[in-house]
Amino acid sequence: MTPMSAPVSSDRPFLNRRLAAFGTTIFAEMSALAVRTGSINLGQGFPDTDGPAQIAEAASRAVLTGLGNQYPPGPGVPELRTAIAAHQQRFYGLGYDPDTEVLVTAGATEAIAAALLALLEPGDEVIALEPYYDSYAACIAMAGAVRVPVTLRPHAGAFVLDLDELRAAVTPRTRLLLLNTPHNPTGTVLTPAELAAVAELAVERDLLVVTDEVYEHLVFEGVHTPLAGLPGMRERTVTISSAGKTFSFTGWKVGWLTAPPELVTAVRSAKQFLTYVSSGPFQYAIAEALALPDAYYDTFRADLAAKRDILADGLAAAGFEVFRPQGTYFITTDITPLGEKDGLAFCRALPERCGVVAIPNQVFYDDKAAGATQVRWAFCKRTVVLEEAVERLGRLAH
Questions:
Q1: DSSP tally for the chain: helices H, then strands E
Q2: 240 Cβ partners below 8 Å, 6+ apart?
Q3: According to the model, what pLDDT value does residue 71 have?
Q4: Rg of the chain's alpha carbons, rounded to an integer?
Q5: Which of the four pLDDT bands, split at 50, 70 and 90, describes residue 178?
Q6: List of residues 6+ apart from 114 with CB closer than 8 A
Q7: 396 in Cβ contact with 354 (< 8 Å)
């Protein structure tokens, strides 16, 4: 037998240069660390309980009766597109045509990727609020565009957007604003006044806007205001959301976007060459989920608010500076009061110190120094798990 030959050797790396800077995500690293050390994983943002049993049963029923087991329609099954349009009307008074203005995707992550790949040309500039969800940077890079961060900065116990800094970031090369509210990882919810200023800027400079609103039903203080509802914004905004965060079925990967027909057509042109279609039976189940009564949404939000307070109070007692979030299911803390200054080193050592895993925020920044002392914690876990985590974190205070 001849020995296997080695891979082709050259000076050129296998991974293309646009993605070379990204490597393995911090979530994979920290989740593996949690498993290896038997730690409580408050790093990656997924619930440790499933969503409503009746929705799980709807998915099971769809599989067993042959709904969605073969390729569903490219834009999504009609039942789900109709339910998404009804949801936008019910909660925000926004009217969308389910046939031409709704597109179902493989989670919000694919919706973001497809939107950026479709709407950007190489060299276009994209303004994104920093810290940002890590896929934003990768998707902008894959599109060949240029990321321009505008940093949310700590002030009076919250992270705030400097509207003057946002305006100054816009250049003749700016094509698109990528906006996330409620904001991961900081938990900031942009106010109607802030959103009005963003809308005014977008109209004035003729910018497209992609909004990531996956935490729309997890606002604890204030209200969620979709940017698409503001004057001049409907025709230039791609609004993205998903079922994972609202219904606690993150593995189903059912996302969607709403936008005018021309924008939906453009995004669908990219999306069809990514997953083509996905989550067939789950689409039927999520159509039922979106029609759940207000009591479901209210109870879900109240439950997460109580969990937020358990973890926030425990982190404060352990000595962290805590930025109590207005929305999402993440809490950002500062480790400086603990005598620490490197969030990445802190998070890597934390499992051995007290058996808890968190995420260093610096991975969500271009300006690493701005997030160097920040650490993010997920509170979308069972109460007993959060209470155990708080007890373990208490060791840091001694």
A1: 13, 15
A2: 108, 111, 112, 115, 210, 211, 212, 213, 214, 255, 256, 257
A3: 97
A4: 21
A5: very high
A6: 105, 267, 268, 270, 271, 274
A7: yes
Contact by Cβ (8 Å): 189, 182: yes
Parallel/antiparallel/unpaired status of strands 208-212 and 174-180 = parallel
Retrieve residue 377's tokens.
Answer: 């914690």
Evaluate the omega torsion of the peptide bond into residue 185 and state whether it is cis, within 30 degrees of 0: yes
Instruction: Give the span between the Cα atoms of 318 and 308, in whole angstroms.
Output: 15
Asked whether residue 2 carries a pLDDT value surpassing 60, the answer given is: no
**Cα–Cα distance between 310 and 312 in angstroms, integer?**
6
Strand pairing report for 208-212 and 237-242: parallel
Q: Give the whole-angstrom CA distance, residue 85 versus residue 116.
A: 22
Residue 388's alpha-carbon distances to 41, 138, 302, 371, in angstroms, are 11, 35, 21, 27
Residue pair 284/81 in contact by the 8 Å Cβ criterion: no
Tokens of 282: 């789950």
Report in angstroms the alpha-carbon separations of 35 from 41, 311, 357. 8, 21, 10
Mean pLDDT calculated for residue range 244-261 = 97
Are 217 and 260 contacting, i.e. CB atoms less than 8 angstroms apart? Answer: no
Question: How would residue 153 be classed by pLDDT, with cut points 50, 70 and 90?
Answer: very high
Contacts (Cβ under 8 Å, ≥6 apart) of 178: 112, 116, 126, 127, 128, 129, 132, 136, 140, 209, 210, 212
In terms of C-beta density within 10 A (0-12 exposed, 13-18 middle, 19 or more buried), how is residue 65 classed? exposed
Amino acid present at 36 = R
pTM (two decimals)? 0.95
Euclidean distance between CA atoms 398 and 395, whole angstroms: 6
- Give the separation between CA 299 and CA 32, rounded to whole angstroms: 32
The predicted-structure confidence for 50-75, as pLDDT tens digits, reads as follows 999 999 999 999 999 999 999 999 99
Band of residue 4 on the pLDDT scale cut at 50, 70, 90: low
Neighbour-count burial for 8-44, b at 16+ CB within 10 Å, e otherwise: eeeeeeeeeeeeeeeeeebbebbbebbeeeebbbbbb
312's tokens = 């926030």
Please name the residues in contact with 23: beta carbons below 8 A apart, sequence gap of 6 or more.
none
DSSP state of 116: H
Which residues pair with residue 103 across a beta bridge?
A: 257
